[in-house]
Design a protein that fits this description.
The structure is a single chain. By secondary structure, the chain is mainly alpha-helical. It is built from 16 helices and 2 strands. Strands 1-2 form a two-stranded antiparallel ribbon. A hairpin with a 2-residue loop joins strand 1 (87-88) and strand 2 (91-92). Helix 10 (174-188) packs antiparallel against helix 11, helix 11 runs antiparallel to helix 15 and helix 15 (246-265) runs antiparallel to helix 16 (274-285). The longest helix is centred in the C-terminal third of the chain and has 28 residues, at 192-219. The chain starts with a helix and ends with a helix. 41% of the residues are buried.
Length: 288
């Protein structure tokens, strides 16, 4: 995974995604985009491309666009009107350094910059760009991440069912993780069987990531996860733990891991899935 992160960060740093700082807006954009993080979504996209025997450079611009969308969502999530967080990845949140107005605009700018990147990608044909832009728009918008965020906010201070919670996570967290895999399938032009298996795998991966997030919120360490723990309980948010309890949440996590690994096995011997299997286990066992 570190190899993919290094390649992605090198490409990100060597590309003039955002012009040399001329206003506080560009500085604010760069601050959050370069604040570190695991780069899980772009790595998942590149790793899936590699597994599908496709040059990862064909997906590099899409990977950057995806990370910009993710970064914008974090900037906005941290705002006082949303989660009101002071720290992200162990550093002060964007609005704490640059003010709320600039943070909002930085998020807006990163969102729109993402689609500009894909539209200018010289590695892809026009029809591929259009399809990727459509898929990313759906994953990031009201049918995906943003829709999940409002469902999450509407569910605060309420008792909700496990099905409702899964729906929230499928949109809020899972949509961009799913896009990582589906985008790679689109670029690699896989057959329908491979697409369906990897699409199902990506949805399991999204649930694994969020369930582990819920566990880290009560068992995590600020020095490792880079943000306050216990915020879900403080904000009266329903989580897997509040609905199932800690023990059953860990059982559910293991079940989704097993299902994700099973789906990868169904791809057969034509594909080397060891990297994706390792990434799945990393999602489940991470400490941050």
């Amino acid at each position: 995974m570190n190899n993919y992160v290094e390649q992605f960060n090198e490409s990100l740093n060597n590309t003039k995604l955002i012009p040399i700082v001329e206003t506080q807006l560009e500085e604010s954009m760069r601050y959050s985009l370069s604040a570190g993080g695991k780069r899980i979504r772009p790595v998942l996209l590149l790793m899936t491309l590699s597994m599908l025997k496709t040059d990862i450079n064909k997906g590099m611009e899409t990977a950057k666009a995806l990370e910009m969308i993710h970064t914008y969502s974090l900037i906005h999530d941290d705002l006082p009107a949303m989660d009101d967080d002071d720290y992200r990845r162990g550093k002060k949140t964007n609005h704490k350094l640059f003010g709320e107005a600039t943070a909002i605009l930085a998020g807006d700018a990163l969102l729109t910059k993402a689609f500009e990147l894909i539209s200018k990608d010289k590695e892809l044909a026009s029809e591929e760009k259009v399809k990727l832009i459509r898929l990313l728009s759906e994953a990031a918008g009201h049918q995906g991440m943003v829709g999940g965020q409002i469902l999450d906010m509407d569910s605060e201070n309420k008792d909700i069912s496990l099905d409702t919670l899964r729906k929230i996570h499928r949109y809020k967290t899972g949509a961009l993780i799913r896009f990582s895999v589906v985008a790679a399938c689109t670029i690699a032009k896989v057959n329908s069987k491979t697409f369906l298996l990897l699409d199902s795998f990506s949805q399991e991966l999204g649930l694994i990531f969020q369930i582990k997030d819920d566990l880290l919120d009560i068992e995590g360490d600020f020095d490792k996860i880079g943000k306050a723990v216990g915020s879900d309980e403080t904000n009266n948010k329903s989580t897997y733990i509040s609905i199932l309890g800690t023990t059953n949440t860990k059982i559910a996590l293991e079940q989704h891991v097993n299902q994700a690994l099973y789906l990868l096995e169904q791809l057969g011997k034509d594909y080397n899935t060891e990297e994706l299997k390792s990434l799945t286990k990393l999602f489940a066992n991470r400490e941050k």
